[in-house]
Task: structure prediction
Amino acid sequence: MLAFLGKGGVLVIPILFCSVIVLAIFLERMIRYAMMRSRGKGLAERVADLISRDEKQKALEISQQSNSPMGRVLVQAISAKDLDQEVLDTVIANATDTEVRSLSNYLQTLATIGNIAPLLGLLGTIIGMIKAFMVIQEMGGKVNAAVLAGGIWEAMLTTALGLAVALPTMVAHSYLLSRVDKYEARLQDGAVTFLKAAAGR
Result:
């Protein structure tokens, strides 16, 4: 397999390196999202109940102990609970944005790799085609179809490899982005639940 890929030229190396980065990012994000799934579950409702019973300190403690994006947003919200409504809304919005940015870490890298992998493959193909036609020129144009076909398929190998990396990369990026959108919606729902409880006090 390595010998086969080696025929694609030097640009096979960065394309394979991109595939390793993509796999590492995807696994890291999936593990992190899986860990968060249970940590903040039902936290907003518990905190809202405590806030409605004026148990601010206990609500703050369980938010801090949850070690989750929802918990960190609620910690900021509880700390600003007694401030003006406009300030409270701003604090919650900023805390939510911070958590969403954290959840979106490395996703732009996936998008970038998805865009450049086919271009790397195309560049490799162009370089390979240039070399193939240089060989034909050196032979005075007297080359059989087998030699020409061999040079062309080796040149096109990098394009195929670039597409093979780019396609699953874009799928992974879209999937992870949808997960981030779901978590963002969950954080916003939690913030609304807290604001309703705070307003009732």
